[in-house]
Amino acid sequence: MVHHLFRSRRDQIRSHGLTWSDPGVDSGWLSRLSAGPLHSGAWRDERAARRLRMVLGLLLRLTMNLKNAAFLALAGMVLVTLLLVFGFIGDVFGVARGVVPSMRLATSFIYAFAGFSVVVFLYFFHKARV
């Protein structure tokens, strides 16, 4: 089954006259594989390098959907928001001690509130994608 999908995708790309090293074929980090260990002598067989890029692209397309992407964005944004909230708490203590100017407290609150708003949006977006 996977071999059939793998072969049909390869044939489809070849029918358009493209190769896997063309910039329009690979997406994002897959296109950067050609700049890494594939051309540094570790991969002497170009066919093996192409096969690796095609298999990684197939796995990415089979496993990533909109719901998984929303969950990953939500998890990352929760971590960023925690960092912003801890920074806001540190600024509150800094203003209370007179070490940090009070304008820093306002900007820190705006950043933390914006992060929290994005987390709420991504949570409901993730729940809506059933």
* Largest beta-sheet characterization: none
Shape by Cα distribution: elongated
Mean pLDDT: 76
Topology as H/E string? Answer: HHHH
Percent helix range:
over 70%
The parts where pLDDT drops under 50 for at least 5 residues are 1-5
Topology:
Elements: H1 2-15, H2 46-63, H3 66-97, H4 102-128
Top keywords for this entry?
130 residues, mainly alpha, 70% helix
Overview of this protein structure:
This protein is mostly helical and 130 residues long. It folds into two domains: 2-63, no CATH class; 66-128. Helix content is 70%, strand content 0%. It contains four helices and no strands. Helix 3 (66-97) runs antiparallel to helix 4 (102-128). The longest helix has 32 residues, at 66-97. Residues 1-5 have low confidence and may be disordered.
